[in-house]
Design brief:
By secondary structure, the chain is α+β, with helices and mostly antiparallel strands. The protein contains four helices and eight strands. It has helices spanning 28-36, 38-44, 136-144, 147-163, and strands at 7-12, 17-24, 51-57, 64-70, 76-87, 91-99, 112-121, 124-133. An eight-stranded antiparallel sheet has the order 1-2-8-7-6-5-4-3. Helix 1 crosses helix 2 (38-44). It is globular, with a radius of gyration of 15 Å.
Length: 167
């Protein structure tokens, strides 16, 4: 990540949320595409050496993204995001869950609701992310699993993708 790019990560246990504010050195159209197109998400979403692999994606209200986080040994952790509200180039929200390969939600893991807002400022884009959990224990479990480190690494992958001009 370039030293001058904004990166704020905070945990608000009182409101059961994780809040992330992250700047990218690219226009909103490119950053939006990277968050909403499976072939681009697969290039940055997982922290290295893991890789994201989309099985299916239907980016529309009522649609969902079913994907695996694939480890270096081939281990797959399946996840899904059910899209709720979408305003193109502005924001979207989704209900996130761990699941099986067919998309059946694993109730033993916490679910969360993501709200992502995109704002372009002077050629850069700030993505403001709020991740809300149903219980503070769910939030704590995700933090203990290394969410901050993994998500930060994924966002750094997105920096690399945007710098490569392959969008």
């Amino acid at each position: 990540m370039k030293a001058n790019l904004l990166m704020n990560f905070s945990v608000d246990k009182a409101n059961k949320t994780i809040n992330v504010e992250r700047e990218f050195a690219a226009p909103v159209s490119k950053v939006w595409a990277a968050w909403t197109e499976s072939q681009l998400l697969d290039q940055w979403w997982a922290p290295k050496p893991w890789k994201a692999q989309t099985k299916t994606m239907d980016f529309r209200e009522g649609g969902y993204w079913l994907y695996a986080m694939v480890g270096p040994d081939g281990t797959k952790q399946w996840c899904r995001a059910d899209y709720k509200l979408i305003t193109t180039l502005k924001n979207f929200s989704a209900r996130d869950a761990f699941c099986d390969e067919e998309g059946k939600v694993d109730q033993s893991f916490p679910r969360s609701t993501w709200t992502n807002a995109f704002n372009e400022q002077s050629g850069s884009t700030i993505v403001s992310i709020q991740i809300r959990y149903d219980a503070v224990e769910d939030l704590e479990k995700i933090i203990e699993m290394g969410f901050k480190e993994g998500f930060t690494a994924g966002l750094e992958n997105l920096d690399e993708l945007l710098e490569s001009n392959s969008l």
